[in-house]
Specification:
Number of domains: 1
Organism: Peptostreptococcus russellii
Keywords: Cytoplasm, Methyltransferase, Nucleotide biosynthesis, Transferase
Distance between the termini: 32 Å
CATH superfamily: Thymidylate synthase/dCMP hydroxymethylase domain
Number of helices: 9
Largest sheet: 7 strands, mixed
Helix content: 25-40%
Order of helices and strands: HEEHHHHEHEEEHEHHEE
Shape: globular
GO cellular component, one term: cytosol
Family: Belongs to the thymidylate synthase family. Bacterial-type ThyA subfamily.
CATH architecture: 2-Layer Sandwich
Subunit structure: Homodimer.
Radius of gyration: 18 Å
Length: 278
């Protein structure tokens, strides 16, 4: 069982056993049939993984779509795009289609914000030229952008980067996390981002911290979560899972999904289906 499996189980049990809920309250998200999608939740969740010690936040209780997650990161931070056709045609990802604002984009969000403020290049240049600065931040929650178009507000909304003794550490700040569906994907995709940035600036990937302000389970996902809680991965199969980045590349903008390999990853099957809350 990986450290991420243990953290996932603890978080889900905390939510189900001692969390709060929105039952009876007015909520924004709905299921496809129009029914309000309520949640059970806890606030202010913090997890920490030292990548240099092999603490990879990969979930094995179910298949984690790690390749698709990394492709989404490339779309946001390399392509710096909000274009759903680009996401579909280049990366074969369609999970953002439900948030199409009507022009085949997700609005002035995510990659469009990165491009507008040149956030990625500013980060790379800052880490190279003033590595021990305390202002290495990418913030996707820009009020001007949120007000300029409709669209889902960024969930994984900010990263903060710090250098220490040859290592690059990163904290991901997330306002909201759908725990059984997207939490594991967000973790591994931002670890991949950390690995690419560290390589670009000549450092090793260090500690990945993940702060979630609202960690929740939707009311129609309870049975699937109970199934995951009952699963027990074989210890010997999962304590050596590694995400490996092609050592021959150093430029952030040159990396592709083919430069990543996941070693010794054998998640439990079958995978589970979750109804989407939109």
């Amino acid at each position: 069982m990986t450290i991420a499996d243990k953290n996932f189980k603890k978080l889900c049990m905390d939510i189900l056993n001692s969390g709060n809920n929105t039952l009876g309250e007015k909520v924004r998200p709905k299921y496809a049939d129009g029914t309000p999608s309520h949640t059970y939740f806890v606030n202010q969740v913090f997890e920490k993984y030292d990548l240099s010690k092999g603490e990879l936040p990969i979930l094995t209780l179910r298949q984690t779509a790690w390749k698709s997650g990394i492709k989404e990161i490339l779309w946001i931070y390399q392509d710096q795009s909000n274009d759903l056709d680009l996401l579909k045609n280049k990366y074969s990802i369609t999970w953002w289609d439900e948030w199409d604002i009507g022009n085949r984009t997700i609005g002035q969000r995510y990659g469009a914000t990165v491009k507008k403020y040149d956030l990625m290049n500013k980060l790379l240049d800052g880490l190279k030229n003033q590595p021990y600065g305390r202002r290495h931040i990418i913030n996707l929650y820009q009020e001007t952008d949120l007000e300029s178009t409709k669209g889902l507000h960024p969930c994984a909304m900010e990263t903060q980067w710090s250098v220490r003794d040859g290592y690059l550490d990163m904290t991901l700040i997330q306002r909201s996390s759908d725990v059984p569906v997207a939490n594991a994907i967000n973790k591994i995709q931002y670890v991949a981002l950390l690995m690419m940035v560290a390589r670009h600036v000549g450092l090793e990937a260090g500690v990945f911290c993940h702060y979630v302000n609202n960690a929740h389970i939707y009311d129609r996902h309870i049975e699937q979560v109970k199934e995951l809680l009952n699963r027990e991965p074989q210890e010997e199969d999962h304590n050596k899972v590694r995400l490996v980045l092609n050592p021959e590349k150093t430029n952030f903008y040159d990396f592709t999904i083919d430069d990543f390999k996941m070693e010794n990853y054998n998640p439990i099957k079958p995978n589970l289906k979750f109804e989407l809350a939109i």
